[in-house]
Amino acid sequence: MTKYKNKFGEVTDLFNTPSLLEYEEDSESLEWYSFEGSDRIYELSRQLRTFLNYKSVVIRFRFSGSQKEENNPNKGQIIKYEDALFSLYLRYATLLKRIGVEKGTIAEKIQILIEKVKTQPNDLDINFLKEIKPLGGELWKNLHILSEFKFHYHPRLLHMAIKIACVLSSVEGVYFLYFSDFYSELKWSYLQLEKELSALLCSNEDEQFEIKKKKRQVRILE
Question: Can you give the pLDDT at residue 112?
């Protein structure tokens, strides 16, 4: 919720230029509104496609059995984006910890910080907020690129990517308040997907254990 009223009763935005909001009939302002609106709709559409891609990857993993990662022809590219994803998320998680985020308090802490900088401007707090926002955008891009690969051979990476998407959905709902319902639904969907994948991983581990157990029994009989 970055919008608030100034002393003239006009709506301003913490992160955008106020003058753009004061002259609604100006042609340049209308063009800016159109561009920002289109850009946001495109981003929401891509984030939805990202989720559907991950859903598809989980389905592939469910029916792929115990195939190995080496079977994936895109392994090199996947590792490249995996490294970028973890590097970005390390910085992102560090920033969240610096503003006091704990488990389950992401949206609440960012909301409190936004309210705080409106009444008690602090360069450090504002810089945290401004850095978190673009980092989130970069993480979404990397998540989307990964989702385009058939990386069901990399279940641990898949699991981590889905968990990162859950965190991003919590944060985006605060930065883009008008789309909070969208991000709330998106987070819920990712949480359900994460539960589904966790159950599959546990099932596969149990299956592998049973296979190894039978092999050991065969060796004993021999």
Answer: 84
